[in-house]
Amino acid sequence: MKTDPVAFSAFMKEMKAEYECEKFMEGRSMTSSTVADERSDDDPRYTIEPHNEYMVAAKGMCKRERPKKVFLVCGQEPNYGNGGEWIISDSRAITKQMEPTVLNKFKALETRYEIYYPTKAKASYNCWEENIAPTKEEAEAYLTRAGCDWTWNEDDSILIHRNLPCVAEHPQTGEVLWFNQIQTHHATFYKDAHPDFVDHDESIPWPVHTKYGNGEEIEEDTLNHIREVVWANTVAVPLRLGDLLVVDNYAALHGRMGFSLESPRQTFVSILYE
């Protein structure tokens, strides 16, 4: 595969790819129309836990809330002795190994995904004016179409939330599989892993968080169990220059190992709905 992002974008357009919504979970723009996006801007020092690509704020905005395929092209490979591998997890094995009590509770209550954005004047990480829309009226219109609820705070920050199921039916096989971002969207992901939040003021909400759909906090033991099952069914994939990795977004989770700041890495990504 050519590593020119323009060529990759043209290739994906031929395959009818759409990248109408950026990864909401990572606080990026919700309104990007880029078909192929560069994935070298995440801080390399932390590991992105395995997750399904899932558009929380996508209802009415994309043809599907759940992409079928994720395409990853290696534009520059790092020194794999220092990390940087893509990681892939087996959704079927995860579903089978998840404790029935955990699985059934999430099935019954769903998961509440919360996203917090300060206003631009007070932002140190992300803000709603750049990630959603420049005015409150436009932001509310977008979130209404996206099927989200929200609360404006006195300091003009916004807390967005939406309840979503923990499983999804595979479009080809009909299997009901573990499909969510419960642990990767939870505040512990930032608290325990993200270097920019080591000294975070806990009186300020975390950028993202998950709860049970009824608003209850998810137990620490439950989060630990989810992470243990996911990582037990995960393998590393060291892509070489020009390699194309196609991930079935229902049958597999994907993520990225942290890597050294001295070992540059570049990946281009796109998603396919059909």
UniProtKB/TrEMBL annotation:
GO terms for molecular function: oxidoreductase activity. It holds the Pfam family TauD. InterPro entries: AlphaKG_dependent_hydroxylases (IPR050411), TauD-like_sf (IPR042098), TauD/TfdA-like (IPR003819). Residues 27-261 form the TauD/TfdA-like domain. SUPFAM superfamilies: Clavaminate synthase-like. The keyword Zinc does not apply. Keywords: Oxidoreductase. The keyword Oxidoreductase applies. It comes from the Eukaryota. This is TauD/TfdA-like domain-containing protein. It comes from Cymbomonas tetramitiformis.
